[in-house]
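Hello,

Following up on my earlier ticket. Below are the two sequence lines again, exactly as submitted.
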Amino acid sequence: MHTLDTPPIRIAIAGLGKMGLSHQAIVNAHPDLELVAVCDPATWLLDIIGRYTKVATYSDYARMLERERLDAVLVATPSRLHARMVRAALEHGLDVFCEKPFCLDVEEGARLVALAAERGAVTQVGYHNRFLGTFEEVRRLLDVDAIGRVHHARVDCYGPVVLRPKGATWRSSRNEGGGCLYDYACHGIDLLSFTVGAPSGVSGSILSSVFSASADDEVYANLSYADGKTAQLSANWSDDSHRKMSTTLVLWGTNGKIEASRQELHIHLRTPVAARPDLAAGWNVRYTTDLTTPVWFYLRGEEYSAQIDYFAESIRQRRVDSHCSLAAGLATDLVADMIRRDAAGAAGAGAGAGSATDLVTASGVPGRWGRLRDAVLSSPETIMKALKGSP
Amino acid sequence: MDRILFGDNQFFGINHMSDEHARAQSMQFQSNGAVMAMLDGVLEEGIEVLMCTTHERVAAICETIRAQPARYRRLKIYPCMPYAHKYANAVSELGIIETVRKFLPDESPLAAAVKSGIAVARRDVDALIRRLIDAEMKMFVAIPTPVIFLQNVVTDLALGLGFHEALRTFHDHVRERYGAEPGFITMNLPRLLEALDAVGIDNPIVCANVNKIGFRMCGGLPAYEEAVASRKFRAVAMSVFASGAIPAAEAIEYVCAQPRIESIVFGASSLAKVRHTKYLIDHYTALGRGEPCSVRVE
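Thanks for your patience. The regenerated structure is below:
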């Protein structure tokens, strides 16, 4: 709660789509945040927002940054716009919350991570699964090696988004960051990063369309890790056997197995673990009702409120290296990029169509791109070095 | 309001604790026949209100009810609108502008504003809200709907945004057009009561989670207990079992010990569970009122 000594954090929101409006309600209800302005190109929507709520409205993002005295910006625009909006915010000295995926162009993403580090900005990418009680508990279990050394992981993301060959928004266009890869699959990749770390290699990737004309509807990939661990990712947003997005993470370790979804956690232990006397050998079941921490305001799930609360707390503490910073978002973007390249290579269609392609040397050796990828997996400083390094 | 309301989550595979239960229930109630058979049994148990979302399958259930007026003469429905996924999916697929166009006739002023960028007037937004309510209510024609609820995702969105006048418009339209009592479902009870007060809604019907573990009771358990005990509103308790996390008798005892809670809504996928829950509610309600109880709860 803000006091006279700690004034509220002044924040603006860019993009009033589904996520933006939901963020607006949550931010507006947060005791430490003061929603100062919103920005969207739809003037009729701004009319309504301006008329019924007390917030200032803008159709021009640059103008909003110029005119308002802000501490932070929340970017919830279509993915292709993230990079330049995040850059403008960082250049204005603001802290930034960016919806996922962070940045479609990984090289620009790396520059932004470096810029944020240089400016000492607090940043966050909207991977809300990191704030779900069940997945947070998985992290805690891994921190005490409850299932021993993890040797394999599997993440499945299924749900009903594209169910017919139609679609008029940016979500159905790969060039704008649409497609299952930059949506469902990125949630899966991020969940792996959050729990077992970012992979160092990708193979056997498949990106295919079920209904979409210009984007992928399903994504499958094998991921490998420097320590010999492996993982599989499976995402399909044309599956309406699920009422809404369903994400399941399974981890196999030398002392057992964990199956986690939004609602439940099943833990199978070979032998009990001293650090967790609450868990018995064999199956243990935990439910979201036991694992969920209350939030100050609930709209669509505790995790959406919890991530905003975490952002506010990060700003208060100047926590520039949070677990879900732009650097973590970039790590996920890089894996998505690796999958895209791998799938394109396997399909014999060249090395992908994105702007990151030029980072691959002519010989096909990952070269600078490979160094960049390795750097992203370590620290912003090494990213800067990799960017400055010889081609 | 009736003391006991039957909820519909089980019919549509919604379970806040377990995906597996949700799937089993969605298989069990895949056919409308299975839903109607369950409803018939619930009516026989003496529960006469179905509290349900405006899910498209409810339209088919309403058809069946209308076709047999004698059989369902005691049944009332408390609709909960909107079924938000319908709009959310449209926004994902079409974008907000096309969604507004899809759900609004061309001649409406808001549709014109969306197309041409002219200013949106206050009355246009009011008219839009009223039109959306009418669209959701179509499926219930000729069925008694004495209470009409606004779903929590919309109530709480308006609450969070500070768009409290939308709640007032919903209230007014439900009363004026349908002669029904408006109700509000929320996950943020204390905050909502303040907002409803501020727009002059007196003694509102509000449905919120009430369970002894404080699950999804934003503002905290003490604030909820305080609100129920002292604020002027008609409380409907939902999620009383916290999706199964609390043993049934303990859960109902807690709710019934708060005498100002007017109604309890619960769902179940077996008649045995319905019977048991009704029995517990009757028992603890009588206990709370200091009436003699002929039954003993194990």
